[in-house]
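re the bet — no i am not wrong, look at it urself. input seq straight from the record:
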Amino acid sequence: MRTVETGHGHRDDTRALVASTDLNDYLDWPGVAQVFRLERTWRAQGRGKRAVHYGITSLPPAIADARQLLGHKRGHWGIENGLHYVKDVVLEEDRSLLHHGTGPSIVAQLRDTALNLPRPVGHRRIAARLRCHSRRAEAVLPLLGLPCP
């Protein structure tokens, strides 16, 4: 399966994924149903780039063929951009000075809660919603199931 996309300043981005069950009997990996090879080529700053990734999946070909696996791989970046980018850029998680004890875990859970509260009620622009809540803390109460004062 091959896809070609143009974006980011007319940069062509080509992905080719080949999936196979041929190695299943040779691999000592619980639940393996397919292996795949994903090759990506693109141009950046006028230079051709190429990356090859290999993977294992428990999804059999009847459930996820090469086209569907390629879609799953692309969907992964939706998670990366939708969650990790917001945590890294908006909440500046990477700049945190908490490094010892339970502090990093507790603050990470608070960040996750702040990011995930607006989504079930339909908010998609999480950064804008967080800014709104920072100015109007009472707007968070309904998201927590609490009445406004």
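see?? The first strand starts at residue 2 and ends at 7. told u. also The mean pLDDT is 81. so pay up
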